[in-house]
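Raw record, unedited: CTP synthase
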Amino acid sequence: MKYVLVTGGVVSGLGKGVTASSIGVVLKACGLRVTSIKIDPYLNTDAGTMSPFEHGEVFVLDDGGEVDLDLGNYERFLDVTLTRDNNITTGKIYQSVLEKERKGDYLGKTVQVVPHITDAIKDWIQSVALIPVDGKEGPADVCVIELGGTVGDIESMPFIEALRQLSFSVGQDNFCLIHVSLIPVLGVVGEQKTKPTQHSVRELRALGLTPHLLACRSSQPLLETTKEKLSQFCHVPAGNILNVHDVPNIWHVPLLLRNQNAHNSVLKQLNLLSIATPPDLRDWTKMAETYDNLTNSVRIALVGKYVGLTDSYLSVVKALLHACIACSLKPSIDWIAASDLEDDSAKLTPEVHAHAWETLRNAACVLVPGGFGDRGVTGMILAAKYARENKVPYLGICLGMQISVIEFARSVLGLERANSMEFTNSESPDNVVIFMPEGSKTHMGNTMRLGSRKTLFQTPDCITSKLYHNSEYVDERHRHRYEVNPEIIGFLEEEGLKFVGKDESGKRMEILELPNHPFYVGVQFHPEFKSRPRRPSPLFLGLILAATGKLETHLKGHGNGSV
């Protein structure tokens, strides 16, 4: 197994994940099979209980793993299906070591960070690297490892030491280190400063790791003098100093790396030049250039709770992008904080309230994504009501589907107190959304209905089934605790709301549609997690087609659901 390690220096949030994904794309284009591992040095066992405001979205894998959003980047860029073990955290490592210690596996020895924690890290990396993630048999050729955080962080020290030992044990021909660093430009002087990167590399070398390549982040292309200075003081050949400057969209990053022969530097270090082919990135180039040349756009109102940090809905944004490009459009997302639509907002901040409603009314379609807790729920209900009554295309995902059920029950069934048990926290008969035990109410972590589950279509004559290639069922990823109350289904369907998708037991409602509406769809699963650049999620595609008035034509002309 060959390993490519991507570390970061100077500041966090430099784009290590995109850089690591892009390196993987270029190596894959050279005919190699690639897998990836993300190391998060925090103590949480997984990302499941972390606030989207603090850490961005929680990405859900097929096996139910709740992981860092960077694994979503890997899946989208490399078109692979990862496992929960591809995300290593300090919490997971310490938990596994402590379990062994309790069982007596260490034979009475003093359990220490070195060697026991570092050995556990190495063993985890080497075993996970062998798991095939691309649907083929046998291990990949290269494993790209991203070390989260910044070199010098206390919590990442055991991982740095483990990776130093790994690089020594696998040999120089099997290990390549790429260090991502920042080259700032001071406004007054206007000069590209290399000193922060010099210090970062010095810190890394003091810990026993020497970078083979530098990926330098900057707003503008690096000057030759800057490269020479970096080469001289960081002991990296000038040809191995990559400039990852700002680009119009992140699909340009693999092209940027290829144009600087990054693949040759990595292949040479890993002794793979003899088996690799020249990188074939024609599809990728076409995709990046197509997006740059798009002129028409579609306005999408995204009504959510965490709109203050767009990374909270990263997969939703990417799925909208994939669907829009398939329709030759650029997405123009109008972010609306759900609470700004509520009556309380009209009293406290009337201008914000008026602007939120004006934005909603100017959008071609409405999307209400997932979320937890009762903040902003009233605003989401108002958005769903507006979309339903005004025939505006609507897609509700997870909580967004439950919102549409609550709104319909209140407005059409006349159940004014209709609500979700999640918000009332009681066994009220007014709950149209209830807790259905497949998890625990006391423990928050890893207790939900998680991962890829089968949804059976109840009728082939529905929009969703047609969008999904007239399939009898669909496998999509879930992340929720609450379900639509089965006892209320009959009343809702009598009034026109149709549940066209259910789980295999028939008790859990998965997909709802409203006939006689251009596109009013709610899904309990998260279709955004399986959307890919060249294979957009059918539901997101349906939303954009409906927003542009092309859905009916599409369904008639493409009965198989393809674009």
